[in-house]
Amino acid sequence: MFKNNSSTGLILWRLGLVSAFLCALFALYPQFKLVYNRGAEWQGNYAYNDIDEVAYASYLRALIDGRPRKNDPYTGRDHTAVDPQPESLFSIQFAAPYSVAIPARILGIGAPWAMTISGAVAAFLAALAIFWVIFLLTGNNWVAFAGSLFVIAGGALAAGEGAIGEILGTGYSYPYFPGLRRYIPAMALPFFFVLCGSIWKLFESDGRKKLLFGLLGIFSFGYVTFSYFYIWTTAAAWLASIFLVYLIIRPDGFKNDLKWLAAVGVGCGAVLLPYAYLLSKRAETLDHIQLLVETRQPDLFRVPVYIAVFVIVLMAGGVLFKVIEFRSKAVIFTVSLAVTVFAVFNQQILTGKELQPIHYQVFIGNYVAALALICAIGILLKRKLARNTALTKAAMTGFALISTVWGFVECHYTVRILDDANVHRDKGMGVARRLSELAISDADPHRTTVLSFSMTQADDLPTIIPQNVLWARHQHVFAGLSWEESKERYYQYLYYSDVDSASLAERLKDGDFVSMIALFGWGRHTDRLSSAAKPLTLGEIDEESARYQQFIEQFDQKTAANPVVSYVILPVNSNRKLENFNKWYELDEGEPHGDFILHKVTPK
Fold first, then answer.
1. 390-396 contacts: CB < 8 A, separation 24 or more?
2. What is the pLDDT of residues 9-18, one digit of tens each?
3. Which residue of 111, 237, 335, 513 shows the fewest CB atoms closer than 10 Å?
4. Of 348, 339, 345, 336, nearest to 300 (Cα)?
């Protein structure tokens, strides 16, 4: 424990540790569920709680194996002096994966366990950081204890997502604890709140401590910058918001505080210079998935925005009725958090550009809004809570219990959505381990190609094996393939699956999101990611079907050898005839591995 200059008491870290431990349990729930579902048959795979985690896990595996920062686990194309690769989302956002990969490599931990452990660690640290910030602003350990649990457990609720949709019958139980998606944004999340706490301590400290907390703030900003776009831009928006609110309200000592804040801002600006350089070297495929929209339309109808407006109204009411001081730094900080939420959803009014606001809604804006709400309530009730300690403890314990129960409600409803996929992925561990064994004698296993006819398995394989895959749903998020090459890989997958052009057209007309994303990029299958999303037209579908038909007609030995397929994985008792594949390759009798058969194949 240490003395906090802004409060009348000591910060009780043991309460924060209880909150952090409970949040770590939430993060581990999907893994407990998978082990429970598989029982003695569990083969060691991690349970993903978001389908995008396979891409993050694959990149993590590559880093653990010592491959370069610019690597592509789905195609095996890594950066070399002879074959330089452009930057991808993963190589630019390298801080979080390296902070997991380095200790995993030192300790000899594989990617599945690293993913599981990192999620729990991130949840633990995030809860602890939020506990710290709430205590700094309210001076109350019990409010910080209950509030930190609420912010994490209620994160999906504050986004208007998660279990509440199914409970009310208005939507789908997804996603599970969005801020705990491993390792992005999970590892970056606690550092955002460390930044908030560091700025508070920067204002409250003297002498060398000011410099220490200023540097901690810059470091935290740097970490989130090279970890996740939506968190660093929210951090930048918060720094701008608190500067603006400080300038308007002008509390005691504001000139000195703003000087220090400006110094931190300069340090953060310096961090963005190398980031901008890396971004300028990005692959063209990055632009296909970012969905930048030119618009100046305000975005006001989101749950985090409603919460932010409510917080501002609460603070205004508290000032009007003289419950709180207008120039209180705690009020300024709380208002700045609320203003930040409004800003990230509406910055396009000034910039004219909008980038997938749903990510602000579920990965950071919701947590900032929930934090602002807790701080606002804690500040407004500060005097009452301080008068009766026993009642405060009882009330906050009850609130913490409700938050914990809600956390497990979120777990129950949202984790089961991916139960079948996780079981399927774990059943594939046997054949994946066999491929890893075969890779030992391979001169260049990263360039050896595996064809799996299970989309879920193909997505997951690079997390377990060193070989690449012919095609997977997440391959286009890396930089190894150009957009046209990525489409051609999907054409190959369809061709080897004996899908003709008429069937592809039917899939697209029926709204098959996998085909839409693979052939048209993100944002055409739903308006969730982009306010400018446009559904496919019949003309576009017919044109794409014609291109695929031309691909089929021109398919030759050269196409079949780009890349050369070395292994094929089929489900046991598969009824696939593989007529097209058998024109170019010969399969051996195969090795059974649980629910799958592994075939070595040779070109004809």
1. 392/140, 392/142, 392/143, 393/142, 396/142, 396/143, 396/145, 396/146
2. 799 999 999 9
3. 513
4. 345
Residues 6, 139: contact at Cβ < 8 Å? yes
Which amino acid is located at 583 in the chain? K
Q: Any idea which of 170-174, 414-418, 484-488 has the lowest mean pLDDT?
A: 170-174
Asked if residues 200 and 6 have their Cβ atoms less than 8 Å apart, the reply is yes
Burial class (CB within 10 angstroms; exposed 0-12, middle 13-18, buried 19+) of 230: buried
**What secondary structure letter does DSSP report for 99?**
H
Q: Measure Cα distances from 292 to 26, 229, 240, 287, 348 in Å.
A: 34, 13, 23, 8, 11
Q: Helix, strand, or coil here: 355?
A: strand
Q: Which residues pair with 174 in a beta bridge?
A: 162
pLDDT digits (tens, 9 = 90+) for 550-567: 999 999 999 999 999 999
Structure tokens at 166: 């199914």
Q: Check whether 291 has a pLDDT greater than 70.
A: no
Q: Which of 330, 323, 315, 261 is nearest to 6 (CA)?
A: 330
pLDDT at 417: 94
Q: Which helix (H) or strand (E) holds 221?
A: helix 208-225
Phi, psi values for residue 473, rounded to 5°: -60, -25
Question: Are 46 and 31 spatial neighbours (Cβ–Cβ below 8 Å)?
Answer: yes
Structure tokens at 550: 């031309």
Report the distance separating Cα 46 and Cα 269, nearest Å: 38
Contact 111, 164 (CB under 8 A): no
Cα 488 to its chain centre, rounded Å, is 28
